[in-house]
Amino acid sequence: MSLAEGGLADRSAWPLLPAERTWGRWRLAIALATAAAATWCYLIGEYVGYYLSFTQGALALTGGCMIGMLLVFLAAGPICGRYGIDSVASTKPQFGSGGWVIPALMQLISIIGWNSLLLIFFAKSATQLLHVLGLLPAAAGGRKVVPAATLLACALIFFSLLWGAKGVATISKILVAHVLIGLWMLYLLLSHRWPELSAARPALASPDRLWNYTTGVELGISSTLSWWPYVGAMIRMAPNARTAVLPVMLGMGAPVPLLSFIGLAGVLVLKSSDPAEWLRTVGGTAYAIVALVFVGAANFGTAITGIYSSAIGLRNFAALERTPWALLLLLTIAPVVVIGTLIPELFFAKFGTFLAFLAVGFAPLCGIQIADYFVWRGRRVSIRGIYDRDPAGPYAYLYGFNPAAIIALALGCVVYMALLNPLTFVSHGPYRFLTASLPAALCAAIAYVLVSRVSQRHGRAPPSD
Amino acid sequence: MSHSLPPELARRIEALEVLEALDEPPIAPDFDPVSWMWLAVLGLVVPIALLVLGWWLP
Fold first, then answer.
1. CA–CA separation, A197 vs A264, rounded Å?
2. Which of residues 82-111 of A touch B (CB under 8 A)?
3. Cβ atoms of residues A93 and A79 within 8 Å
4. Residues of B with CB below 8 A from A83's CB?
5. How many angstroms separate the Cα of A238 from the Cα of each of A20, A23, A26, A439?
6. B10-39 residues touching A, CB cutoff 8 A
7. In chain B, whose CA is at the least distance from the CA of A211?
8. Does A14 lie at the interface with B, CB-CB under 8 angstroms?
9. How far apart are CA A414 and CA B1, in angstroms?
10. CB-CB under 8 Å, A379 with B50
11. Which of A309, A438, A440, B15 is surrounded by the fewest CB atoms within 10 Å?
12. Do A241 and B11 touch (CB under 8 A)?
């Protein structure tokens, strides 16, 4: 029985055939919007609000997000859209038949981190909701309720995803409403507090106006770069890359800055990016309930997409190629359950450190993929080579690893950290004119092409396709 | 080389290679002029315009 006949095509990392790729523009846009719109938007807005006023922050963040989305889409989009494969599989031409584990690990760590954050946030919102509704005594703390709610959310996600991509699409259709509720929350804040908002000054703004503005743009770019795994996993369900252009650029690129405005406005006026806190101040208990339901729905929708993307990525490992879908889901959810039930508070406290390193890795990765596909290979890759594990295969390189990609990735990371320390946000050199993500991506792209050319001359790399 | 691939995966790859050899939709080319235009507008023109606007705001 073929995968298609069994209705299991979307549960493998194998390429999907055109007949199986049935998501149209709207379905894809809804799935992407649901994936992108989550609690992290508030955090992104909050960070921008530390450095920029509302209007400047909104414009810098939107511009940065759109540029970041372009990078991500040009990196993973053409190959994933062309052959119906996920983001990790699309890195095999660059990193090699063994080296793809590097981006696979980056994806795994990033998605586990994001999903842990989202589900802990979901559990906290559920706990607050129970408090507001009077179903949980005020004296009862979240120490036991949060882990229990995290566990329940993981169980719900597991059962939803037993349907595979069908489950993602179904949940997306229901939860997309939370994006509209989020915009309504933004309208409430703007209409009730506009004078304060327009006069509010960012708390941590540097005396250097250009540095503040560049940091707002950088936060937008780096935030969207970490959606690299999600883009591939979703657009492989669309017929081709052309169909995915508007859904990705608008469906994923637009809701993120829009919902980030909530966190931006919240931190500027009410010193809190969490609407569950300030909506009670603005509108009372009823609004707080709406906000908590919104936060829960937003996080749940995104976590579903994240777990799905991560499970598909694991399929690229030979040992997991034929693992039952249910077991693969359990393997993917298990780290989230462990973090969410055992160390939720510790993880929350340290999450900023983890988040800061995402852009360091994903910016060079995008640069390498763009250079490889558009410059080095002239927009041709071998779909057979992507799945060929033969030591003499087209992407075998040096023991399965492409030195050009590894050197370029390392160089890109060094360039990023030389320009901007992701932990302290202390910058150096031309950061204030260039951002850190864009030079890191560009340097990685140039290094990849140069090292590939040198390797080819020395006969240590196969010729470009 | 395809002998090492699982039969279903090999079938899929062969089907895609046949489609690709035609060099026409659904899988080729990756982007057409209209999609390039949208990418340029939404990924470069609009964000740069927004950034310029934001910079000149008081």
1. 10
2. 82-83
3. yes
4. 16, 27
5. 9, 5, 10, 31
6. 11-13, 15-17, 19-20, 25-32, 34-35, 38-39
7. B55
8. yes
9. 38
10. no
11. B15
12. no
3-state DSSP call for residue A427?
A: strand
Say whether residue A56 is in contact with chain B using an 8 A CB cutoff.
Answer: yes
* C-alpha–C-alpha distance, residues A198 and A52, integer Å: 11
Q: How many contacts does A have with B, using Cβ atoms within 8 A?
A: 115
Q: Could A249 and B39 be called an inter-chain contact, meaning their C-beta atoms sit closer than 8 Å?
A: yes
> In sequence order, what DSSP letters do the residues of A249-278 get, joined into one string?
IIIITTHHHHHHHHHHHHHHHTS---HHHH
Q: How far is residue A128 from each of residues A60, A145, A179, A216, measured CA to CA in Å?
A: 33, 10, 21, 31
For A5, the token pair is: 């006949």
Provide the residue count of chain A.
465
> Which two structure tokens, joined as six digits, stand for A130?
């129970």
Q: CA A350: distance to chain centroid?
A: 18
C-alpha span between A256 and A274 (Å, rounded): 15
Q: What is the pLDDT along chain A (465 residues), one digit of tens a residue?
A: 334 434 555 567 789 998 888 889 998 998 888 777 777 788 788 889 999 999 999 999 999 999 999 999 999 999 999 999 989 999 999 999 999 999 999 988 888 888 888 888 778 777 877 877 777 776 666 677 888 888 888 898 888 888 766 666 666 666 666 677 777 778 877 888 888 888 888 988 999 999 999 999 999 998 888 889 888 888 988 988 899 999 999 988 888 888 889 889 888 888 876 666 666 676 677 777 777 777 777 777 778 878 887 888 788 787 887 788 889 889 989 998 898 888 887 876 666 666 667 879 999 999 999 999 999 998 889 999 999 888 888 999 999 999 999 999 999 999 999 999 888 888 998 999 999 999 999 999 999 999 999 988 876 555 555
Closest CB to A383 among B16, B32, B38: B16
- Reading the block at residue A95, the tokens are 């990193």
Amino acid identity, position A117: L
pTM for the whole structure: 0.87
Residue whose tokens read 């372009």: A70
**From CA A217, how far away is CA A222, in angstroms rounded?**
9
Q: Does residue B9 belong to the interface with chain A, where contact is any CB pair within 8 Å?
A: yes
Chain A contact present for B45, CB below 8 A: no
Q: Which of B9, B19, B53 is nearest residue A387 as measured by Cβ atoms?
A: B9
- The b-or-e profile of A193-207 (16+ CB within 10 A means b, else e) is beeebeebebeebee
Which residues does residue A401 pair with via DSSP β-bridges, in sequence order? A398
Residue type, A238: A
Closest CB to A82: pick one of B15, B30, B44.
B30
Sequence length of chain B is 58
Contact A388 B4 (CB under 8 A): yes
A144: which 2 tokens?
A: 């036991």
